[in-house]
Design brief:
The complex is a heterodimer. Chain A is α/β, with parallel strands linked by helices. Chain A has helices at 43-50, 73-79, 96-108, 121-133, 149-161, 179-196, 207-213, 231-235, 238-255, and strands at residues 5-14, 17-27, 32-37, 58-63, 66-67, 81-83, 167-171, 199-203, 216-221, 224-229. Chain A folds into two domains: 1-80 and 165-256, P-loop containing nucleotide triphosphate hydrolases (Rossmann fold, 3-Layer(aba) Sandwich), CATH 3.40.50; 89-164, no CATH class. Classes of the chains: A alpha/beta, B mainly alpha.
Chain lengths: 256, 316
């Protein structure tokens, strides 16, 4: 099957620090890829490069065989790759509905209309459908600044999904969310993403979440991919246990 | 269909002001003309403020509008106001398109200072140009208004000012409710998200800069017609500072706020100058201080506060 996203020998340096070192990977349509690694392993740098936020020092990024290495974030978004952020990037003074309406109107056209109203019945219906998909209808008119962290994350992901992208990259979707809320939240997100048919790549520290939702795992260490396999194989890899998940698995075994 | 209260209010205000042609004393019509003309310049500043940019150089376009009218009238013999309006719009658009390519890359204090620098460059050029009247400036001749030659020039300018201010305010009100209007607030709050929604924050800011410049140039043109005179002070940094002052005074919450702020500013300055001729600037400073301390969102926040308390009063 033709990969939907492919990177070739992707490198990124910040001065003397090598944040990404020859990352070559191909992601197929429909995969749910969990990206794991300790802090500073290069996970977010990888997401930032694929989504155009950071330009690689060397290497290439392809989307359906089209070279997208030098595209800007908005151009990457327009071809079908969207993302959410570790810290939800929203418009805090607007309501949840208004945030989604801005997303819907931006998805309609790159150049916004200057005189027609934003709040058209069609746009409101589209935004309300997204609210329903992510089960946040109850927060429709709440100002974003007053939302709990978990709901903000959902709104962030919902906004990214408004344009129905082919690929969605989630940067730590459960960071800052309580343990009790995590699984319920990800159940909602994954169900909505499956419904939209999006290929998903999510950065995550919680190994239980990776085991439960990912169909494939990329383990990062020191800017390199040290394992790329199905979750069971990858999480039992000797290097992955030593450098990435060892302590978490040990804790879980003690608990069990 | 729900009534648009703002549009209704603007229409009523226009009707009341047009009635003023026969009712208002001369000093009041002049005050209205100048308040509306300067209010338009402030509207341009507010448009940019909503996107998070404060222009300390809006006097540049105020001056461009005024000088375009004066130069065409005095140097080229144009006597039709419609030609002046088109010319002011074209010249300001052209200048804003060029300067905007640079300015739209900057934010915060850098945008403020750079916009002021461009305004001061124009001021310097005008002061050093004897052909354009140097520091004294020059006069704007009497005009016809779309073919109509009123008995008193001020009557034509007054009606033109009211109508243009109404049209621009109504368009601005529609713009505020449009996707582009909402994106202004979105850019101010989170440019990264705007980019990841597929829009270019820089291009949008450039576009808003051009629109704000055209509105301000129309304000300058009307001001020049009202006073019958232009001088380089129009581009001086203190003039731009006054516009920012008025924007803070009125607030950014509603299209009417810049015009209310502009009227109040004219009244405060007139009376401060009359009663405290040597310390009138101190009175203005004191007013600004009080507004910032007690009404940080400007005078319009009083109306917003009153509106938000209405339902609670009804509940009781």
């Amino acid at each position: 099957m033709q990969p939907i996203v492919r990177t070739e020998q992707l490198c990124r340096n910040f001065g003397a620090v090598v944040a990404a070192d020859n990352i070559t990977v191909a992601i197929s349509p429909g995969e749910v890829v969990g990206v794991i690694g300790a802090n500073g392993a290069g996970k977010t740098t990888f997401v930032n490069m694929v989504t155009g936020y950071l330009k690689p020092s060397a290497g290439k990024i392809y989307f359906r065989d089209r070279d997208i290495t030098r595209l800007k974030p908005r151009q990457v978004m327009r071809i079908g790759i969207c993302r959410s952020f570790q810290i939800a990037q929203l418009f805090p003074e607007l309501s949840v509905l208004d945030n989604l309406l801005v997303a819907v109107s931006s998805s309609d056209s790159a150049w916004p209309h200057f005189l027609k109203p934003l709040k058209s019945p069609a746009r409101i219906a589209a935004a309300e459908q997204v609210l329903a998909d992510y089960r946040i209808e109850g927060f429709r008119d709440t100002v974003v600044a007053t939302l709990p962290q978990g709901v903000r994350k959902l709104v962030d992901i919902a906004m990214a999904m408004v344009s129905r992208p082919a690929v969605l990259l989630l940067d730590e979707p459960t960071s800052g969310v309580s343990v009790e809320e995590k699984f319920a939240m990800l159940d909602t997100i994954m169900a909505a993403l499956r419904g939209a048919g999006a290929t998903t790549l999510f950065v995550e520290h919680d190994i239980e979440i990776v085991e439960r939702y990912a169909t494939r795992v990329l383990a990062f260490y020191d800017g390199r991919i040290i394992a790329d396999a199905d979750p069971e194989t990858a999480l039992n890899d000797a290097d992955v246990r030593r450098y990435v998940v060892g302590s978490q698995i040990h804790r879980r075994q003690v608990r069990e | 269909m729900a009534t648009d209260r703002t549009l209704l209010g603007l229409t009523l205000a226009l009707a009341a002001l047009l009635l003023g042609v026969v009712v208002f004393p001369q000093w009041l019509t002049f005050l209205v003309m100048m308040s509306l003309a300067r209010g338009l310049v402030v509207l341009g500043i507010v448009l940019q403020m909503r996107a998070g940019l404060v222009s300390f150089g809006q006097g540049l376009y105020y001056c461009i509008g005024g000088y375009t009218a004066a130069m065409l009238g005095s140097l080229y013999g144009v006597r039709e106001v419609a030609v002046l309006i088109v010319a002011a719009i074209l010249v300001s658009t052209l200048v804003a398109l060029v300067l905007g390519t640079l300015l739209s890359r900057y934010r915060d204090i850098f945008f403020a200072m750079l916009s002021m620098a461009f305004s001061m460059i124009l001021y310097g050029l005008l002061v050093k140009s004897p052909a354009l009247g140097s520091t004294d400036g020059f006069n704007v001749p009497a005009m016809t208004f779309f073919g109509w030659k009123p008995e008193a020039q001020s009557t034509g300018v007054y009606i033109l000012t009211c109508v243009l201010a109404f049209l621009i305010a109504a368009a601005y009100h529609r713009y505020q409710k449009s996707p582009a209007g909402y994106l202004a607030g979105a850019i101010r709050e989170n440019e990264i998200r705007v980019e990841y929604l597929g829009s270019s924050a820089q291009s949008l800011l450039h576009c808003k800069y051009v629109i704000a410049s055209v509105i301000s140039a129309v304000g300058g043109l009307l001001s020049a017609l009202a006073t019958g005179h232009v001088d380089p002070e129009m581009a001086y940094w203190t003039t731009s500072g006054e516009f920012v002052f008025i924007a803070i005074l009125g607030g950014t919450g509603h299209v009417a706020a810049p015009f209310i702020g502009s009227t109040l500013f004219s009244l405060v300055r007139t009376y401060a100058y009359q009663f405290f001729p040597y310390t009138w600037q101190m009175i203005l400073g004191l007013v600004l201080l009080l507004i910032i301390v007690f009404l940080p969102r400007g005078l319009w926040s009083l109306v917003q506060r009153a509106n938000s308390e209405k339902p609670r009063a009804a509940d009781r």
